[in-house]
Amino acid sequence: MMLTRYNPWQELNGLQRQMDSLFEQKATVKAPVAELHETDAALILKLELPGVEAKDIDINYA
To answer: ∠10-11-12 over CA atoms, to 5°?
Structure first.
């Protein structure tokens, strides 16, 4: 039987790697591409929303 020495830091290193990967995943979230134009009569907003249909969007303003 082989004896191995317990290393408590090994578990903490694993936890650190998991937390790092969590924050890396959040950093890769991208905001939609947007264009905003103003005319005398209106504000025109164009968004790229892949997988979303126009009928599913409801825009309100005040």
So the answer is: 90
Q: How many independent structural domains does the chain possess?
A: 1
The answer to the question of residue 11 being in a domain is no
- Residues 2-58: tens digit of each pLDDT: 888 888 788 888 899 988 888 776 656 677 889 999 999 998 989 888 888 989 988
- Measured CA to CA, the distance from residue 1 to residue 3 in angstroms comes to 7
Angle of CA points 45, 25, 51, to nearest 5°: 40
Cα angle 8-27-31, degrees, rounded to a multiple of 5: 160
Q: Model's pTM, two decimal places? A: 0.42
Q: How far is CA 2 from CA 5, 11, 35, in A?
A: 10, 20, 65
